[in-house]
Predict the structure.
Amino acid sequence: MSLTAKPIHVTYAYQQIAEEIEAQILRGELKPGDQLPGEAELGALFGVTRSTVREGLRQLESDGLVHRPSPRRLEVAVPQADQLTTRAGRAMALMKVTFRELWEVTMVTEPLATRLAAQRASSDEIDALQALHGDLVGSEGEMARTIELDERFHSRVAEMGHNRVLGLAREPIALLLFRGFAQIAPFAPKFYKRQIEAHSNIIAALRDRDADRAEKWARMHIEDFWRGAQIAGLEDEIALNARALS
Amino acid sequence: MSLTAKPIHVTYAYQQIAEEIEAQILRGELKPGDQLPGEAELGALFGVTRSTVREGLRQLESDGLVHRPSPRRLEVAVPQADQLTTRAGRAMALMKVTFRELWEVTMVTEPLATRLAAQRASSDEIDALQALHGDLVGSEGEMARTIELDERFHSRVAEMGHNRVLGLAREPIALLLFRGFAQIAPFAPKFYKRQIEAHSNIIAALRDRDADRAEKWARMHIEDFWRGAQIAGLEDEIALNARALS
DNA sequence: TTATGTCATATTGTCAGACCATAACGGATC
DNA sequence: GATCCGTTATGGTCTGACAATATGACATAA
């Protein structure tokens, strides 16, 4: 009756090649920066044609495990954060996640990021953040630029928390969420000013190394965003049409 | 002097194909489930050889934008969560993230997940969780199984929060962190029992729809994990050798 | 009618070999 | 040592081909 079907899965040559190389990378036998042999040689090593090798390589490339600094040079890479961000962002867009989902998570990530930043940021980093904030202040009216700078402000804060896991996790989410600003601004004219104010207070708290206060302001900032979203009626709207991802 | 260098980037034929198809998917012109033409036909459409098409397709495949339910059928897919989990997990492993980084994030994600679950889980879902917990209780001594069940317990709770963004973000992190259990257990014999206790309390809180209590227990549970990690001296250890990722 | 079996066809995975542009390397020159 | 230059080999692309097999149409059996 209950026959446990375990679907057999054929593994094609090009997959095996990709897997084999991947395994060697994960096992540490190939370290980031190492250069791989040419396609012809790889073909000889695995006993397959160059075309087959190439298909495998294409896969590894788009996995971010290898990359080509120049067409002739194929080396092992450590996956770049922005690649993952793109993938995750695309996935969330295609899944049609709602602003509520994004916001709920952001509501914990940004305060955490800000708290960590207060504990760990160097004064140089804080200065740089301040400069960025200056640009943001000067961008009133230019929606696209405002959004970009806001995104960068929050990313920067997260970086200053020196937690790469948090950076990786929050980036795609923040990116999608903060883009909603464009839809909120028309409904909430005062929103821009409150944003500036919140950022200022965050910077001040960072300067004072006051983690609690920094966290609190971050939380209020994100809560504020939500109020804006509510006014604009975005709560259960889909975050954005996937095409908007560059 | 400050000439703004705009690095031209050649785009190869296979990339253009991948990009073009990707764009059509993101633009919604191709919807998940839609079937794509055969390789030969695609080649004709783009004015390019089949080999070239194939390389482009390999990339889209590993991006999760298209997939083959059967070798002959190529259709548009919505990226699967587990694919992203794998990529992110690999990336974090290769970045050599520490337990501290993982824990700091988990410290906010799991309580949130649990709180949301308390608000949104159906009783059926809670029953299923209870069953899973039962298995966990019965797995004492079998380290690998205990870890797997613990991971699944937390994933399940997250699912019950019905927030896909949170699910996506926390999964790879939790996966890496909870594996540390194997390194902790030998140092903290009572740890296993406390884990069981915490899970029980979480389930009870979920049943009562008591979001605060659920969240509190989740937080304590993760804090507890950290104490274990400290005893085992893992705080700034690298989470795990990448090879351990299946 | 529905289910099973048969068969032709089209498509995929893989291979072999070839072409051209150019990146990389080594040597020559300054 | 730095710059120029020519050779070479490698990557991107193409053509053409072959075997295995999934698919769909058709025929037959229950």
Q: What stands out?
A: Chain A touches chain B through 52 residues (CB under 8 Å). The domain at 13-76 of chain A is CATH 1.10.10.10 (Arc Repressor Mutant, subunit A). Chain A has a mean pLDDT of 91. Residues 12-14, 48-52, 55, 70-73 of chain A lie near DNA strand C (CB under 10 Å from a C1').
